[in-house]
């Protein structure tokens, strides 16, 4: 298995389904997670349930609303 210890992993769609499951799994494997989705409230709950929750970042993000994304 790949070593995720201290690796940064950005998961879009982390508020449910596969994204939520991957968040829990990668957190257990020692990764530092950036959790993104439209539902910031649910992301905060999921991040709080993770191992080392203080090392994870919640980034409320709607990829459909890409006019607000700054590529710079």
Structure description:
The chain is an alpha/beta fold. It has one domain (1-52). 31% of the residues lie in helices and 21% in strands. It has two helices and three strands. It has helices spanning 17-28, 40-49, and strands spanning 8-12, 32-37, 57-60. It has a three-stranded parallel β-sheet with strand order 1-2-3, covered by helices on one side. Helix 2 links the parallel strand 2 (32-37) and strand 3 (57-60). The longest helix is centred in the first third of the chain and has 12 residues, at 17-28. It is globular, with a radius of gyration of 12 Å. The N and C termini lie far apart (35 Å).
Short description:
By secondary structure, the chain is an alpha/beta fold.
Kindly state the percentage of residues in helix.
25-40%
Largest sheet: 3 strands, parallel
Number of strands: 3
Strand arrangement within the widest β-sheet reads 1-2-3
Number of helices: 2
User: What integer value in Å does the Rg equal?
Assistant: 12 Å
Low-confidence stretches: none
Which structural class do the helices and strands define?
alpha/beta
Distance between the termini: 35 Å
Output mean pLDDT.
91
Q: Assess the beta-strand content as a share of residues.
A: 15-25%
Shape: globular
